[in-house]
Amino acid sequence: MTQEFNHGTAHATLFPDAPDWEGAPTMAVGKFSCGSVKDGAAVLAEATAAAREAGARRLLGPMDGTTWNSYRLVTETDGTPPFLMEPTSGPSDLAAFEAAGFAPIARYFSARVTLAGMDNPPPVDPEIRVETWDGTDPEAHFSQVYDLSLSAFSGNAFYTPISREAFLGMYLPFVPVIRREFVLFAYNSEGALVGFLFGIPNYGAGPAPDTVILKTYASLQHGAGQALASVFHSAAQEAGFATAIHALIHETNVSAQRSAQLGGRMFRRYALMGKVLDDNPA
């Protein structure tokens, strides 16, 4: 059961069911906001004390329970307005977490790439076939994606599975604004689904954006990710978009190298913060 904490201008929620960190009992603090570093650090101290008392030995934040929900805070930005579905932070959030004894334990970034004239390499495996969603039966198609994601994401740090119903509840609301050419499926020579890519125009900038977001992609076979990305960038160029955002990439992921090879320019950095708890208040 979650617990709510308020201190002055700050608010936080403690989630008792969180991904394990280093195999230790772990909780997460999320739904965080603060108007000052002092208030933010104080509310995090209250949540930390409650987590320690409940038996946690690790605390993650900001994270609304799991990585399927909002998590990470902004650590560096060029001032570009937030894009659709991007985690956001208040001006005092990072300093508040640091003042409360948290430190970065995973780092991420978003980059933008100019599509005109981009050197978009062809797929490395000609036997991988990429198909565009035909717009029919979204529940069935995203149910396939759910099955693939259980395998593709299982090795990711802090990953925890969610139910099929919860997964569909996250994606199906976007169906009315999805453009089919940015929902891609990769199949191997035997016809098995080995990859998925979900992109969406940056409607956070208005109803007719010139930027498209490569939001999520996953693959189970070498070469599937590159094939999906190649088709995505070509489709974005053909549709008249000027820029693509490579969103929320873990800095050690192979996607980081691919983004750089395509001319991606980093414009935002993020971190998931963590704190080791001992038996005595810090």
Automatic annotation (TrEMBL):
<dbReference type="InterPro" id="IPR016181">
    <property type="entry name" value="Acyl_CoA_acyltransferase"/>
</dbReference>
<protein>
    <recommendedName>
        <fullName>N-acetyltransferase domain-containing protein</fullName>
    </recommendedName>
</protein>
